[in-house]
Amino acid sequence: KLVIRTLLDMARFDLRHREFFKLLSNKQTFLLYEPAMLSALLAHLRLMADNGTAGEEQLHKLVPLMVSAFPDLRPWLVREALSAQDSKGTDSGKRSSSMYYRYLSLLLDADEGIDSARFEEELVEVSFSY
After folding, report:
1. What is the DSSP letter of 88?
2. Nearest Cα to Cα of residue 66 among 86, 94, 92, 37
3. Is the Cβ–Cβ distance between 70 and 117 less than 8 Å?
4. Cβ-based neighbours of 113, under 8 Å, separated by 6 or more
5. Which of 78, 65, 68, 73 has its CA nearest to residue 26?
């Protein structure tokens, strides 16, 4: 957690990170995932999760992009970013659980999901136990 937080803090100074973060903040922009946008995607995901209800609509729109970012964006990173809002004492625990379930469902979907994700044993076990 500390390493990721430190890397995200350092990424704020990267020009491409800021560029992608602005694109992700624009609600009208359609983006295809590029590996260079990973830090911006993770930072934006955390920001939207922290916004609670206000960021919920934006999070729904980010789910397909998060799925296409697999395996760069690991499911545990998504779960951690979404559960960060639970620790703030809000009633958003159910929202973050349903958002993570939506992400896992799309990731493991037989038609539209990521093939390599369906073959990761621990990921499939997590999705059934979550």
Report:
1. G
2. 37
3. yes
4. 67, 106, 107
5. 65
Task: Measure the N-to-C terminal CA separation of the chain; round to a whole number of Å.
Answer: 21
DSSP letter, residue 30: -
Q: Which two tokens stand for residue 118?
A: 């369906």
Instruction: Count Cβ atoms below 10 Å from residue 123 Cβ, excluding itself.
Output: 20
In tens digits, the chain (130 residues) has pLDDT values of 677 777 777 777 788 888 888 888 887 778 889 998 889 988 888 888 777 666 777 888 889 999 999 999 999 888 888 876 555 555 556 677 788 889 999 998 888 888 888 888 777 665 555 5
Looking at this protein, which amino acid is placed at residue 111? D
Length of the chain: 130
Separation between Cα atoms, residue 22 and residue 130, nearest integer Å:
33
Residue found under tokens 């916004």: 51
DSSP secondary structure of 31-56: ----GGGHHHHHHHHHHHHHTTHHHH
Encoded tokens for 19: 């560029």
Gyration radius of the chain's alpha carbons: 14
pTM, entire model? 0.77
